[in-house]
Amino acid sequence: MPDTAADAAVETVQREMTAFARRARASAGRMHPELSLVSYTLLGHLEERDGCRATDLAAHYALDKSTVSRQVSALERAGLIERRPDPEDQRVQVLHLTRAGRRILAQVTESRRAAFRERLADWPDEDLIRFAAYLERYNAWRGGPRSEDPDRGTPAGTYR
Q1: pLDDT tens digits for 56-76?
Q2: CB under 8 Å to 102, separation ≥6 — which residues?
Q3: d(Cα 55, Cα 60) in Å, to the nearest integer?
Q4: Which residues on neighbouring strands pair with residue 89, listed in sequence order?
Q5: Cβ-based neighbour number of residue 33 at 10 Å
Q6: What is the pTM of this model?
């Protein structure tokens, strides 16, 4: 049981973020049945970086290489990403979105934006601005061991 108001607030934050993560995972399937939240996150990272190596994805999300390898294989089979030789080192393969990957990512991104807009439609502007700033501040924290930071171990703040 929480001892202080701050302890109670931390408990509430943890509970609500877990609910948020569950809702995000559940809604991902409704946005696009073939694109999990993890896949969406990986595609978004590839788009943002204009491609990267699978090892870079594993390092960024603190995932096992085998986990990333399975995700990458599934995205390749679906025709959403492709491997290209790195121009600076032909031995290295860089993952890039295909046209289909870009199209599906854009569709899902727009669906997610629409869902957020709908859910936040009644919020005053100052609350939205404050909420956005708090989320940025929370997600910018880099202290402590990675294993103790649950939203750094899996893409997009999902919890295991």
Answers
A1: 999 998 889 999 999 999 999
A2: 47
A3: 9
A4: 86
A5: 8
A6: 0.73
Helix (H, G, I), strand (E, B) or coil at 107: helix
Are residues 143 and 82 in contact, defined by beta-carbon separation less than 8 angstroms? no
CA-to-CA distance for 92 and 87, rounded, in angstroms? 9
Dump pLDDT digits (tens) for 23-59: 877 776 666 666 788 888 899 999 999 999 999 999 9
Give dist(CA 18, CA 15) in Å, integer.
Answer: 5
Q: Which DSSP category does 53 fall into?
A: -
Are 38 and 74 in contact by the 8 Å Cβ rule? The answer is no
**Cβ distance 157 to 139 under 8 Å?**
yes
Cβ atoms within 10 Å, residue 143: 6
Rounded to the nearest angstrom, the gap between the alpha carbon of residue 19 and the centroid of all alpha carbons in its chain is 16
Residues in the chain: 160
What whole-number distance in Å separates Cα of residue 84 and Cα of residue 68? 17
3 state SS of 128: helix
Phi first, then psi, for residue 79 (nearest 5°) are 75, 20
How open is the CA angle 68-21-52, to the nearest 5 degrees? 30
Cα distances from 152 to residues 80, 104, 143, in angstroms, run 24, 25, 11
